[in-house]
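User: I want to check something. If I give you two sequences, will you return the structure for each one separately, not as a complex?

Assistant: Yes, each is folded on its own. Here is the first sequence with its structure:
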Amino acid sequence: MNKINFNMMKKINKFLIIALGVLTFYSCSFDDTAQDLLASDLVAGGPYYFQFANASKSLKTGVAPSGDLVEIEESIDVVLLGAPLSEDVTVNLAVDPSTTISSSMYSLSAESVTILAGETSGSITVTSVASAMPQGETLKLVLNLDAGDYNATAGTTLTYDMLRIVYCPIATGTWTINGTDDYGDGWNDGTIVVNINDVVTNYTLADGSVYSATIDVPSDTTKLEFSWLQGSWDSEVIFTITDPLGRVVLSVQYPTAGGDLGYEPCDWVN
């Protein structure tokens, strides 16, 4: 009786072990598959929103080696927050009333951004019309995303500060230095140092009370600097520097310190 029961128990245990193993294997397989399906369902059908990749930037026109203005050309990127979609989606852009730049001063390559199926971003391009922009005045281009309920909670307004730089090319040709010494004994080692494309030339009044000299500034000049090298009696020195257009770009009376004289191509006295 005990032997029979023992054998029966062994058979029952074997059956239970096999059944449990099958059940465990099946359960694991089911769980893995269910998790994959659940994950894919979430990815495919989950929420998604749109926002600008860069909500603000400061943009400036440039200058080419030829001296011509270089337009602002900037990408406006819209990103999808969520899994890639199975079809193309288009998001409209609207100019905000706070925009201060005139529509004649820039152009957009499109008025909407399309994000292609399977992608998470799309873009258009804004290009300045520098010739229509005022110099030295920062203007704002403000754009809003118009994706309705699919707008993100932040990053849906873009602000670009657009500036046409003040650019004055260096006047080339013959420049003139005119100077005097109050005492009449020259500038006592006081010297105007002129740097043209890293070639340095010194100009000074060795003796007497009146000085005049010319400077040849060639057409390939990209660097022009004026500085003062102190002498022993700078309180007697007066001089002006005039460009080929007749503009007095520097007017110095009794220099009190040596160093750069602060010449800027866009600055002149008269």
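And separately, the second sequence with its own structure:
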Amino acid sequence: MKILFLGDVMGRAGRAAVAERLPKLRDAWKLDFVVVNGENASGGMGLTAAHAKDLFEAGADCVTLGDHAFDQKDMMQAVEREGRLIRPLNYAKAAPGRGHRVFTDGRGRKVLVAQVLGNVFMRRAYDDPFSAIDAILRVHPLGGAVQAAVVDMHCEATSEKMAMGHFCDGRASLVVGTHTHIPTADAQILPGGTAFQGDAGMCGDYLSVIGMDKAEPMRRFVTGMTKDRFTPAMGAVTVSGVYIETDDATGRATRIEMVRQGGRLEQSGP
């Protein structure tokens, strides 16, 4: 199976770039399944139902969220209506929506997508992500209940993301980090057959401060004072993520490639 995961879509510029490039990538790379992290797609904070619809129309089979899952009020209802939206598994127990789902690709193969929030350096403490994902993977074994499994580990600390990769090794096809917006150069297949990348990066303008127009973040760093709101940068976008190929019989990854298309970053892809 050929799977593409795209990192955090950043604001209007990120949405436009995904809308332009994803249909072409689906065709050129003959993709079977696409996951997009959309938690920053609406003004850099959260995702509206309308913008989620745009991502699905661009070619996403599933859109994951993150710690900003419900920053946009209409997502409280949208995540209940739209089963292709995945919020963090270990979010508040009363949160609407689901933290995992089994999808079916165009050839009838089953794909598990799950998202968990880490705890290190995050805004607040969440339920243990390791026990949360363990319970899901135990009932969806690779090569049995599902032909592929994708885990979106949404957190700040690279150490926590790497630990999740090792924890899921042999039980997931891909463990990929999101949230920090800068792609890491550690794409690899772990000994048990799980593809891993510490952070997928963002679909945003990299002439910025992690996707935000650089003026206000720099002012706050230099002066310690706030003047304006953060606003997403609007320059040329690099669509960033990770591409994997898997063995349908085992669900294990056979290939992994970093993806960087367009914009300022060095280009890469399968």
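Because they were folded independently, the notes below concern the second chain alone. The first helix runs from residue 11 to 28. The chain has a mean pLDDT of 93.
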